[in-house]
Amino acid sequence: MKRVSFAEFGGPEVLQLVDAAEPHAGPGQVRIAVRAAGVNPVDWRIREGQILKAHPIELPAGVGIDAAGVVDEIGEGVRGIEVGDRVFGEGPNTYAEFAVLSAFARMPEGLTFEEAAGYPSVVETALRIIGEVGVQPGQTLLVSGASGGVGSAMLQIARDRGIAVIGTAGAANQDYLRGLGAEATTYGEGWVQRVRQLGRVDAALDLAGSGVIGELVELTGDPRKVVSIADLDAPKLGVRFSDTAGSVPDALAEAVDLISRGKLHIPVEKTYSLAEAAAAHVDSQAGHTRGRRVILV
């Protein structure tokens, strides 16, 4: 089978499309014929050699953690899933023609493979950090870098829980944020004052790693009310850096519920082929994403 791999840490140019042995489902796992794989910032962070404590790997290594596809092999102990089922979930090396998923769920009715591949780790991350930051119904959450995948999920999950949201993003994405139920403002000079004019901030999330941790602490008044998933230096200011996943099966179940109730939709901004994985990483690192980027297999 074909899969995207890298033999050394570095820039997107280290990614290669190679022939590899097919993986097989172990106990509690399913193998899928991959139809689409989500592109996540963690993919290129791992490729660069970042956050290896949370994601230890051996080289050469595959790429990707999210996928959607058709089950073609079922491991021992799996119940409620059959060969031929359309599923989405998480597992290693998903930029490939076949992948093994350790956490998975049937795709909601009406969802395409392209759409489904963009949800698993994004929803898990959003649910995890909204819990870690401790924001409650009736309070206001500030989301810095709100237009990407995690931000898109976060705005909708927060609103479903009765939490007001202020989102920051580029000028081109202001209407997009408002469409997801957020008060919106732009980055750049004076952004802290613009946020203050929109209301009190009870908690804040840094999703972009754009060097705003100090300002988020200033706005909330307490570093314990700020969580980052993108700034490795956040702990220097007393802010939690969250990089250890919670329960992916629980996140998938909640994603299915939200999608089925019409409360969660993350658009796919752009798709790529396996051979275009390097371009997908370049675009992901550049930021300014509206929704998700997905590799089609």
Question: What characteristics describe this protein?
Answer:
297 residues, seven-stranded mixed β-sheet, six-stranded parallel β-sheet, 28% helix, 9 helices
Q: How many DSSP H or I helices?
A: 9
User: Quick one: biggest sheet?
Assistant: 7 strands, mixed
Q: Which oligomeric form is depicted?
A: single chain
Regions with pLDDT < 50 over 5+ consecutive residues? none
3D shape: globular
Rg from alpha-carbon coordinates = 19 Å
Order of helices and strands: EEEHEEEEEHHEHEHEHEHEEHEHE
Distance between the termini: 11 Å
Name the helicity range: 25-40%
Beta-strand portion reads 25-35%
Explain what the structure shows.
This protein has nine helices and 16 strands. With 297 residues, it is of the alpha/beta class. The protein is globular.
Brief digest:
This protein has 297 residues and is α/β, with parallel strands linked by helices.
Which helices and strands appear, and what pairs or packs with what?
Blueprint: E1 2-6, E2 16-19, E3 30-39, H1 41-48, E4 61-62, E5 66-74, E6 86-90, E7 98-101, E8 103-106, H2 113-116, H3 120-133, E9 140-144, H4 149-160, E10 164-169, H5 174-179, E11 183-186, H6 191-198, E12 203-206, H7 213-220, E13 226-228, E14 240-241, H8 248-260, E15 268-273, H9 277-286, E16 292-296
Parallel strand pairs: 9-10, 9-12, 10-11, 12-13, 13-14, 15-16
Antiparallel strand pairs: 1-2, 1-4, 3-5, 3-7, 3-16, 5-6, 6-8
